[in-house]
Structures are given as C-alpha cells and as structure tokens.
Amino acid sequence: MNTSKIVYKPVGLIGGALAGVAAGMAFKQLWRLASGEDDTPNATDERRTWREILIAAALQGAVFAVVKAAVDRGGAVGVRRITGRWPD
Q: Any transmembrane segments, and where (predicted)?
C-alpha cells in the first residue's frame, strides 16, 4: 500500500462525516428557500404529496452527492500536495 493511500484513509473518513453534516445543513437551507417551509418532508408523513416527497428526496440526493464528491476530490488533492502522489 502506498503512502498516499495510508494518508487518505483518515482524511476520507473524517471528510465523509463532515460532508454528511454539511450536506444535511445545505439541504435544509435549500429546502427552506425552495418551499418556504422550515421542515423537510418525511416520506411517511401522510399530509405530504407524492410529488413533494419525491422532489425533496431527489434534491437531497443531489446535494449529498455533490458535497461528497467535492469533499472527496478536495481530500485527494490535499493528499497529493502532502505526499506527491494521487491516492489510488
């Protein structure tokens, strides 16, 4: 195992946890802006429509994917700066 992989492991784990928190906060803010509501829809809330639930789920998935990709990429760039190698 090369050094860049060893260095990237903790960076990836910590980054993943932070990405989850950041994505959750970003989704709540985005939902508040888009819907004007403070609460995000819960799939089992019978007062919510299918459309509302599915739009919220799609938005949440997109936000999480973008934040995770940005954090993963940033972590890899940081590891390359430290070790001189891209983590494979």
A: 12-33, 53-71
Q: How far is CA 73 from the centre of its chain?
A: 12
Please say whether the beta carbons of 55 and 30 come within 8 A: no
Q: For residue 3, what pLDDT is reported? A: 79
| Tally of CB atoms within 10 A around 38 | 8
pLDDT tens-digit series, residues 34-52: 999 988 999 999 999 999 9
Q: In the 3-class helix/strand/coil scheme, how is 21-86 assigned residue by residue? A: HHHHHHHHHHHHHHHCCCCCCCCCCCCCCHHHHHHHHHHHHHHHHHHHHHHHHHHHHHHHHHHCCC
Contact by Cβ (8 Å): 12, 72: yes
Backbone dihedral angles phi then psi of residue 38, each to the nearest 5 degrees: -80, -35
Q: Say whether pLDDT at 57 is over 80.
A: yes
